[in-house]
Amino acid sequence: MARGEIGVPGPAAVWFRLAVPVVAGEDTTPLMRVAAAADFGNGISGAVTWDEHLFINPDLTIYLHRLPAGDWIGLDARTWPTHEGVGIADTALYDEGGRIGRSVQALLLDRR
Q: Quick one: pLDDT at residue 1?
C-alpha cells in the first residue's frame, strides 16, 4: 500500500493494475481499468473493521476529467460512516500522470 495498513480501519492509498482482462479475449479499455479499481475505495479505506461489520456498496459513481493513461490506477480513499447504517467512500483517482477524477460509493453498513 502507498498509505495505510491492510486490515486497519482508516484512509488509505494504493495502486492497482488488472492482471487479467475484464472479458476473456477482449482488450481492456482505459474506462474498464478505472471502473474496476474505483470499486475498491471502501475496501481499502474502511472506517470500521471487517470482523465486526458488513458492507454493501449499492452505488458507485465515477467522475473523470480524462481517461487514464497506462495500466496503473491510483486510489486515495476515505470512508465516512454514520451511526445510522449508511456512509460514503470518497476516492481520488490517479494514473501515472496525475489526477484523473473521483469516485463516490454509497454504503450500507451493519454489525455482524
A: 52
Of 49 and 103, the one with more pLDDT: 103
12-111 topology per CATH:
Thiol Ester Dehydrase; Chain A (3.10.129)
- Whole-angstrom distance, CA of residue 93 vs CA of residue 101: 5
pLDDT tens readout for residues 101-110: 999 999 998 8
Say if CB 38 and CB 75 are below 8 A apart. Answer: yes
pLDDT of 91 > 90? The answer is: yes
**What are the residue ranges spanned by the domains of the chain?**
12-111
Among the listed residues 53, 67, 70, the one whose alpha carbon sits nearest the alpha carbon of residue 100: 67
